[in-house]
Write the structure tokens for this entry.
Amino acid sequence: MPLLKKDNGEQCETAEENNAFLLDSKFPLPLSVTPLDTTRYTGLPGPLDKVLEEEVTRIIKPLPTNKAPGPDRTCNQALKAPNWHHPAILPSLFTVCLALGYFPASWRSGWVVFVPKPGKDLNIADGYRPITLLSTLGKAFEKILNTRIIEHYNEEQPLHWRQFGFCRGIGMEEAVHQAVDML
């Protein structure tokens, strides 16, 4: 990667300065950064719903095997193998995480890779697109949590009929059609 030009016209002098400039330009920090909340969630009272083998298989089976791994270096193929040969391991792991209210920090971190944009000037920060590679285990656990949250709200407290975000099968097009019909 070539050394980048900064907004003030100066050029970065080292690869480290280059990387810091790219990160700052693509991911600016807010004026005040609060530390991460390190308190643990104690969970809801009542019996814990176990994560089922079928639940994990439904999430892991369609994962593409040609994607780059994240910081844990676990690729999708490596996640599928234990699920195929020992299908109780991942559901047990995810059930314990739910019981403890724990989402491991290593599953929440990612690597940022800057990919050059075709036809763009690679001497400036706008010539690159950031892609974040996340932990495969973290993405699988996140999908389990997301599915459970959506199921809970659909059963216990259905969303308003005019709610379009976070609703499967209802998209922006439907919102636009309803808005036009109201005119």
In short: The chain has a mean pLDDT of 83. The first strand starts at residue 110 and ends at 116. The first helix runs from residue 15 to 26. Strands lie at 110-116, 128-134.
